[in-house]
């Protein structure tokens, strides 16, 4: 599962990436600081079953913090997009192609109104971030249209499944592509003959299907942020709009690494009594931001992208359903992210292809009940896979 972070230059994408992944992406106050995409691992939050089951977990591929399992997910931060990106402006085609494998997009905009569409700093409050969303949608649609058209020409004279296969790199399945074409009123055959209007309609439908998006309204500490967040919610009711203070989250993580503060996502606790007054003032200002918005928003955008946009679930595979453990005795060792509608067979495939090939049945460890390979999994399921291999 891959989450893409996109937006115009200089709106805080790399800061959000660094805050989410604890990586050190290059950050500066000028356009195109990021040229090559930053790639890293962030963690989304899911309930850990150990609380309900009354056992002590021993995480292996994830971590547990006070009953919340932190599950890894891949994140990519691409360079800023500008109007005309699909035509190559600002190396836009290269940056858009970096998004091809992304399953969902976090679109970062400047909620302070202090950045124009080219990424140039302007006086705060003078720009409407809604315009940044509009041009980003337009660039994504035109890029997808180019990809679809290019592959439609390659598929000329071939059957539809071969055309669909050419587009598989975008994450669109054959049935999904058919659905997008029906919505767009584009014929299934002779895709190379589509009108420009049909092509753009298919591209918009493919974007909505394969690249669901939410809005991260960054720089939420600005006095202009609240008004701009409300504008974004009004103009884009189909998108989730999350106020984000990525700078604040990154500052707190650095302070925590130095042992200066403890931070649980809601409350900052000073760990030293002799901190410089200016640092204490800055921490108090960050706490005020958290109190206003309910957090810095960094964890929220990650969780919403994975669990709301993609409808993903976390399942916990075990080998001993009585003790909820693996063969080493480690309790609830692994947390596995699965897409919406995943089955017991999908979980087996995720663990190891041999388990899936030899699949006999699965066991719902809570109910101690056998289930078949088509059994639809639910969030927080604890499952044993029984295989002939």
Q: Can you characterise this structure?
A:
The chain has 389 residues and is of the alpha/beta class. The protein folds into three domains: 2-37 and 78-235, no CATH class; 245-296, no CATH class; 311-387, Ubiquitin-like (UB roll) (Roll), CATH 3.10.20. Helices cover 37% and strands 19% of the residues. It has helices spanning 13-21, 50-53, 92-97, 130-154, 160-166, 174-184, 196-210, 225-235, 246-257, 277-293, 298-309, 344-351, 353-357, and strands spanning 2-6, 38-47, 63-65, 68-77, 104-110, 213-218, 241-243, 261-263, 268-270, 313-318, 336-338, 359-364, 369-371, 382-387. Strand 8 and strand 9 (268-270) form a beta hairpin. Helix 6 crosses helix 7. It is flat and about 60 Å long.
Defining key terms:
flat; five-stranded mixed sheet; seven-stranded mixed sheet; alpha/beta
Give the helix/strand layout:
Layout: E1 2-6, H1 13-21, E2 38-47, H2 50-53, E3 63-65, E4 68-77, H3 92-97, E5 104-110, H4 130-154, H5 160-166, H6 174-184, H7 196-210, E6 213-218, H8 225-235, E7 241-243, H9 246-257, E8 261-263, E9 268-270, H10 277-293, H11 298-309, E10 313-318, E11 336-338, H12 344-351, H13 353-357, E12 359-364, E13 369-371, E14 382-387
Parallel strand pairs: 1-4, 1-5, 5-6, 6-7, 10-14
Antiparallel strand pairs: 2-4, 3-4, 8-9, 10-11, 12-13, 12-14
């Amino acid at each position: 599962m891959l989450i893409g972070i996109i937006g115009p230059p200089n709106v805080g994408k790399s800061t959000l990436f660094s805050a989410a992944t604890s990586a050190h992406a290059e950050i500066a106050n000028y356009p195109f600081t990021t040229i090559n995409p930053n790639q890293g691992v962030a963690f989304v939050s899911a309930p850990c079953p150990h609380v309900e089951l009354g056992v002590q977990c021993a995480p292996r591929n994830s971590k547990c913090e006070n009953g919340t399992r932190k599950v890894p997910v891949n994140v990519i931060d691409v360079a800023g997009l500008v109007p005309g990106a699909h035509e190559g402006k600002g190396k836009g085609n290269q940056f858009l192609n970096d998004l091809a494998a992304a399953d969902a997009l976090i679109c970062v905009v400047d909620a302070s109104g202090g950045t124009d569409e080219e990424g140039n700093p302007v006086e705060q409050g003078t720009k409407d971030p809604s315009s940044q969303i509009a041009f980003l949608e337009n660039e994504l649609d035109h890029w997808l249209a180019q990809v679809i058209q290019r592959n439609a020409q390659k598929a000329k004279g071939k059957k539809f499944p071969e055309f669909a296969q050419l587009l598989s790199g975008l994450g669109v399945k054959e049935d999904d592509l058919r659905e997008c074409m029906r919505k767009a009123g584009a014929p299934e055959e002779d895709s190379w003959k589509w009108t420009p209007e049909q092509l753009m309609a298919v591209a918009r439908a493919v974007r909505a299907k394969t690249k669901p998006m939410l809005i991260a309204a960054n720089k939420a500490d600005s006095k202009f942020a609240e008004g701009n967040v409300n504008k974004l919610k009004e103009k884009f009711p189909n998108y989730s709009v999350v106020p984000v203070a990525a700078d604040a989250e990154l500052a707190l993580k650095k302070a925590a690494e130095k042992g200066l503060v403890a931070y649980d996502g809601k409350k900052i606790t000073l760990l030293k009594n002799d901190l410089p007054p200016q640092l204490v003032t800055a921490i108090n200002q960050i706490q005020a931001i958290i109190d206003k918005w309910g957090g810095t928003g960094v964890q929220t955008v990650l969780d919403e992208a994975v669990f709301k946009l993609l409808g993903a679930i976390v399942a916990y595979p075990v080998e001993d359903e009585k003790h909820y453990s693996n063969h080493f005795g480690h309790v609830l060792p692994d947390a596995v992210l699965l897409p919406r509608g995943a089955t017991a067979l999908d979980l087996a495939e995720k663990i190891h292809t041999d388990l899936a090939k030899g699949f006999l049945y699965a066991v719902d460890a809570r109910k101690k009940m056998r289930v078949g390979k088509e059994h639809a999994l639910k969030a927080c399921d604890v499952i044993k896979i029984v295989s002939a291999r």
